[in-house]
Specification:
2 domains; 16 helices; 12 strands; about 45% helix; binds nicotinamide-adenine-dinucleotide
């Protein structure tokens, strides 16, 4: 018998959309408009690498302009394809709507493996890619605003900002891209944002009595075990914050070069240092090397966090997953076929469209900061601090119970930018989770978090289209 073909990442996104759309009463034409990708810019450009010219293939996809600007990261990977970028751009639309970030969805991809290039060559490629986007009006604070994704980070965003400033400029130029270094118009807390959002999302699920009862797990994050795939930006911060703030335990980590396991728990900070020093996560003191990196996915644990790439959990390994909860920090790690198998096995999947929305949420804060030309907290911090101090002093006087200056400052401290960013991110993740769960409570046919998240997003996007007068 011929082997069934695994659905592609894009097919899976479309299937997830269709499953949710069938459970809404939104008009067919409107759903069709939301579902399809609006614009695809495919480009090829030459870059001098050493003594030769190399032709680089790249994309920028804008899935939906129901809100402007469109927004989404840029991926550098030798596996980038047009379909992959289309899938990622589509997810961005649903993600932004779900967490009430007023953007349409977009995504970029450059088909290169960053490991094969020097920083100077990567700078040339990034600057050239940016000029291609400028040329076709595919970038700008009110048009389309990129951010980091797999294979890119603050350094690339700084190059994009600088290129845009030189060729276009203007008072709002800094808002043309987010995820910039803090010293170059970035915002504190952006680098950790996706991983931190992953922690808040996992915490919400783990403290949901009804869901925990359904899978036979006690509520709370303390002591829960994690298997982590991918120790890049998202995986590192998710692992670190789940451990430090949630009291969870990372028992296994898989990276490109292999996987490790430790029943006692792995300190991801120490592991990152070990990897920097030795070039590998393997042979980490206190942990054992696993034979194959895929074994991390199949370990017994409470929460599996895939934080690398799409299509990691497929039809061929879904039935081997022992984790009770699959927390999709990466985009599209579970194929639509695998999802069916996992749901039948009573697993909870915390969907990408919700769980990794912390990145775009804090990107939104950065964009607002750039447009307002002011750091968050600048106006209110001292006012709040003085007000709180007055209250504390009053209580002290009336109770005759003095406290130390240190205690006083701890209570009375006004919020800095990082405090406000984290607070805004937590509020966003908690509110979006409540909205997802309220869809499940209202519609008995909706029994999984992904379908509920899509329905919540579709309802919001359709309202935008209707208010634009495009649909009656
Ligand atoms: P990254 O490049 O910083 O890290 C990804 C890591 O995964 C790398 O260290 C890589 O070596 C590793 N990896 C690749 N294939 C692997 C495999 N088969 N097994 C184990 N490890 C493997 O990328 P990132 O920014 O952390 O993005 C990871 C995922 O999170 C992607 O799906 C991305 O779309 C998604 N995401 C990222 C952000 C963000 O803000 N960076 C936001 C939302 C979603």
């Amino acid at each position: 018998m011929a082997k069934l073909k695994e659905p592609s990442f894009y097919d899976s996104v479309q299937r997830n959309f269709d499953r949710a759309a069938a459970l809404t009463d939104l008009p067919k034409g409107l759903l069709a408009q939301i579902r399809e990708v609006n614009s695809v810019y495919q480009m090829r450009f030459p870059v001098k690498i050493g003594k030769e010219y190399k032709v680089i293939e790249a994309y920028r996809v804008q899935h939906s302009q129901h809100r402007s600007p469109t927004k989404g990261g840029i991926r550098y990977s030798h596996k980038v394809t047009q379909e992959e970028v289309m899938a990622l751009a589509s997810l961005m639309t649903y993600k932004c709507a779900l967490v009430d970030v007023p953007f349409g969805g977009a995504k970029g991809g450059v088909k290169i493996s960053p490991r094969d290039y020097t920083p100077a060559q990567l700078e040339n490629i990034t600057r050239r890619y940016t000029t291609e986007l400028i040329k076709k009006n595919f970038i700008g604070p009110g048009i389309d605003v990129p951010a980091p994704d797999y294979g890119t980070g603050a350094r690339e965003m700084a190059w994009i900002f600088d290129t845009y400033s030189v060729f276009v400029g203007g008072i709002d130029a800094a808002a043309c891209v987010t995820g910039k270094p803090v010293q170059q118009s970035g915002i504190r807390g952006r680098e950790e944002a996706t991983g931190r959002g992953v922690y808040y999302g996992i915490r919400e699920v783990l403290t949901d009595q009804e869901l925990m009862d359904s899978i036979g797990l006690t509520t709370g994050t303390e002591g829960k075990t994690i298997a982590l795939q991918g120790l890049g930006n998202v995986g590192y911060y998710a692992g670190k914050i789940c451990t430090k703030e949630g009291g969870m335990k990372v028992i296994s980590v898989a990276e490109y070069e292999g996987a490790i396991y430790s029943k006692a728990g792995i300190d991801v900070d120490k592991l990152v240092k070990h990897r920097k020093r030795t070039g590998s996560i393997l042979n980490f003191p206190g942990a054992e090397n696993l034979e194959q990196r895929k074994m991390t996915l199949e370990l017994s644990c409470d929460v599996l966090i895939p934080a690398a790439l799409e299509n990691q959990i497929r039809r061929d390994n879904a039935s081997k997953i022992k984790a009770k909860i699959i927390a999709e920090a990466a985009n599209g790690p579970t194929t639509a076929d695998a999802e069916e198998i996992l749901l039948k096995k009573n697993k909870i999947i915390i969907p990408d469209v919700y769980l990794n929305a912390g990145g775009v949420t804090v990107s939104y804060f950065e964009w607002l900061k750039n447009l307002s030309h002011m750091r968050f907290g600048r106006i209110d911090k001292r006012f709040d601090q003085n007000t709180y101090l007055n209250i504390v002093n009053l209580i002290e006087r009336n109770t005759h119970k003095p406290i130390t200056a240190q205690e006083k400052m701890m209570i009375a401290r006004g919020a800095d930018e990082i405090d406000l960013v984290r607070s805004g991110l937590e509020e966003t993740m908690v509110t979006a989770y409540q909205q997802i769960r309220s869809v499940m409570r209202r519609r008995k046919k909706v029994t999984d978090l992904r379908t509920a998240a899509f329905i919540s997003a579709l309802n919001k996007i359709s309202k935008d289209y209707i208010s634009m007068g495009v649909f009656p």
